[in-house]
Design a protein that fits this description.
The chain has about 160 residues and is mainly α. It has a single domain, classed as Hemerythrin-like (Four Helix Bundle (Hemerythrin (Met), subunit A)). The chain contains five helices and no strands.
Length: about 160
């Protein structure tokens, strides 16, 4: 599987979100490298990290959408829920099989990258259009586990 680098197209110019995108790329790269190997405990842990990072990132991104009056926020939120549900399904399937196939890893990596490039693109344009320049966004005090539980329980 080829190496994935964080593309300028996936960066918002908002440090919190950009740092999260970098971490997401790092995790999906590790998943891609381990897919199809016998290192199931490491793969299982990485998929869990991916799920947690996505839940946190989506929460922060949605908060910024509301804060900046993004008109497509509802549709974007739906896309977040769909992607997270796909990751949860992959995780459950992986646990049943006791492995993550290269195909499933590729599909997971592809879904995350496509989301960053295609779904996040219009939001990035919105932020640029309104001149949003914050280096960080305000995040609520939260337990990532509690946040994740709330999102995952919807599926």
């Amino acid at each position: 599987m080829k190496t994935h680098r964080v593309s300028e197209a996936t960066l918002y110019g908002v440090k919190t979100l950009d740092d999260q995108h970098q971490r997401l790329f790092n995790v999906i790269e590790k998943i891609a490298k381990l897919a199809g190997t016998d290192d199931f405990p490491a793969i299982e842990a990485l998929v869990e990290v991916l799920r947690d990072l996505l839940a946190t990132h989506f929460s922060d991104e949605e908060r910024l959408m509301i804060e900046t009056g993004y008109s497509n926020a509802r549709e974007h939120r739906t896309q977040h829920r769909t992607l997270l549900a796909e990751i949860v399904r992959t995780q459950r399937q992986m646990l049943r099989k006791g492995r993550l196939s290269k195909r499933d890893a590729h599909d997971t990596v592809d879904r995350v990258i496509r989301h960053m490039l295609l779904v996040d693109g219009p939001f990035k344009t919105h932020l640029q259009r309104i001149g949003y320049r914050a280096q960080a966004i305000k995040v609520q005090d939260r337990s990532d586990h509690a946040l994740l539980s709330g999102i995952v329980s919807q599926f």
